Amino acid sequence: MKPTEQQIKEIWEWCGLTYEYSPYTNSSGSYWYILRDTEGSTITCNGIGWFPIGRQLSIDLNNLFEYAVPKLKKEIPPARFYAILREWVDQIMRGDNPADSLFWLIGNEALWQVKENNG
Fewest Cβ atoms closer than 10 Å to its Cβ: which of 1, 42, 44, 55? Predict the structure, then answer.
């Protein structure tokens, strides 16, 4: 199952990435935004520092291991962290998409399960 744009945005915001929306449009009339990491550095989209509105930082293993995995490791006990990684390997062995599987395991552990438990 593919995540929605909102779920992707939630994961990146949980990782500490921030969105800065531009009041300006490009030549095609599209609005853009800048995505910054926890240090304030601009994250690029195809080598450009602006993302079109509605397009998120891609869910790939490079981005997940750069931003989401370290954040998860800080947030949960080590035994739980390694259990999630074992579950991820099991899912890959069953033929699941590695990036999608990791996204859902992190999101369900860090975000959506917490929301369900807190009402």
Answer: 1
109 assigned to some structural domain: yes
pTM for the predicted model, two decimal places: 0.76
Per-residue pLDDT of the chain (119 residues; tens, 9 = 90+): 788 888 888 888 898 887 776 655 556 666 566 677 777 777 766 555 556 555 677 888 998 998 899 999 999 999 999 999 999 999 999 999 999 999 999 999 887 654 444 44
**Residue 85 near residue 72, CB atoms below 8 Å:** no
Whether 103 is covered by a domain: the verdict is yes
